[in-house]
Write a structure and sequence with these properties.
By secondary structure, this protein is mainly beta. The chain is 11% helix and 43% strand. Strand 2 (15-18) and strand 3 (24-33) form a beta hairpin.
Length: 129
């Protein structure tokens, strides 16, 4: 089984591109805190590259901004290409299959509500508040 679940903040706004025949994809990076830290040291994070397609990319185009905290579910494919110098480069990106807000807009980063950072545009469409 190839499945990954990440919780982190976007390091920059999602980079969204449209391809032929109305295809859309978004690239972004998540800063994911490491679970443990050594005494006396600051918290460290891993910076994980992600890519999303279709409706997920459209969602990120609208709401994928630097600092927003998301829960991402996806898979990890590996790939490779040869760069202009003839060197083979190996790649690993998360292909996003599902993404959710990880904190409420009023939590101020505490993340304790579990309902996500819901933008005002979406909040009006929610069946409950």
């Amino acid at each position: 089984m190839n499945k990954v679940i990440l919780l982190g903040r976007m390091t920059r706004d999602a980079e969204v591109r449209r391809g032929e025949s109305d295809s859309i994809f978004a690239r972004f990076s998540l800063a994911v805190d490491r679970r443990f830290k050594k005494d006396g040291e600051e918290q460290t994070a891993d910076f994980i590259n992600c890519v999303a397609f279709g409706k997920t990319a459209e969602f990120l185009e609208k709401f994928g901004h630097k600092g927003v905290k998301f829960i991402v579910e996806g898979r990890i494919p590996t790939g490779s290409y040869t760069n202009k110098d003839g060197v083979k480069i190996y790649t690993t990106d998360i292909v996003v299959e599902n993404i959710e807000f990880a904190e409420s807009k009023n939590s101020g980063g505490s993340g304790d509500s579990g309902f996500g950072n819901i933008p005002e545009e979406m909040e009006a469409e929610m069946p409950f508040r």
